[in-house]
Design a protein that fits this description.
By secondary structure, this protein is mainly α. The longest helix has 37 residues. The chain is rod-shaped and about 120 Å long.
Length: 173
């Protein structure tokens, strides 16, 4: 082989080696990206967490049982003394819920209805005096230290109930 052919052969081998090396590096890079995607099992959990309201469903259930269930029923579906919360929570966002729970909220307008008719006003007064009427307003929870820090938890619980993603029983902690 002549020295010129030997030089060209060395150059071609160098180019071929460089090409193989670059191809190998590219493949390693691609496979490591795929490995990261396959190993990143938290992505779906993060998306679910971001789409769910902030707060703990379990803590919300505990607070609800302690403070709200006596009027609204153990699953938030209402009782003789207070309305079903699920359709109401389903129709409102978290900000509105927090505002309503922290402040006094008139769930039924019995007083407004009674202003138009004196007979219905007297009947309402009789029901209240005899303790036969449901409470006229939901109490404000802003100053209640057992409730106010957990409003987001209450919303998480009631929102899950309203959306049908949580049944009537105790949720898992």
């Amino acid at each position: 082989m002549t020295p010129i052919l030997k030089s060209q052969a060395r150059r071609l081998r160098g180019v071929a080696c460089a090409s193989v090396l670059l191809s190998a590096l590219w493949l390693v890079g691609c496979s490591s990206d795929m490995a990261v995607q396959v190993q990143n099992k938290q992505a779906a959990q993060e998306v679910a967490r971001l789409s769910a309201p902030p707060g703990s469903v379990y803590l919300g259930w505990r607070i609800f049982q302690a403070q709200c269930a006596s009027c609204h029923g153990p699953a938030g579906q209402g009782s003789a003394g207070a309305p079903d919360l699920l359709p109401r929570v389903a129709a409102m966002g978290q900000r509105q819920f927090v505002s309503l729970v922290l402040n006094r909220y008139d769930w039924n307008n019995a007083v407004d209805k009674s202003r138009a008719d004196p007979a219905s006003r007297e009947a309402l007064v009789d029901q209240i005096v005899q303790r036969k009427a449901p409470p006229l307003v939901m109490p404000a929870w802003a100053s209640e230290p057992g409730v106010s820090p957990h409003i987001a938890d209450l919303y998480a619980y009631l929102s899950a109930r309203a959306q049908g993603t949580l049944g009537t029983g105790r949720p898992l902690p």
